[in-house]
Write a structure and sequence with these properties.
- The protein is about 30% helix and about 30% strand.
- By secondary structure, it is of the alpha+beta class.
- The protein has one domain: Double Stranded RNA Binding Domain.
- It is globular and about 40 Å long.
- The relative contact order is 0.21.
Length: about 110
Amino acid sequence: MIGVKENGTTMGMKRLDLETVVRGLHGSDIRVGVQTFSGGITVWVSDRLHRVRADRVFDDANPLTSEDSVARWMHSTVLQLFPESKYALGYRRRAPGHSGDATTAV
């Protein structure tokens, strides 16, 4: 499945569904991971060979919020790191003219 599904709104902003984002990335051969630890949550994305990688820690200093979620981070990071992936191309077909900001997902 390519693209991003909306599954609700929070304070007028569209929320991304984590499962749909992960399935879309998997279908594009983009690897993702989520790990919890006592201080928070670590999230990462990479290509198949782990050559291109980005990660983020959500903790007390960088908390998860409805405006800054794991799904939003994965989505926007992949659009920046892998603009020619099936995931990014599918997103751009569904939302032409959008910058890739997760709040504009369709």
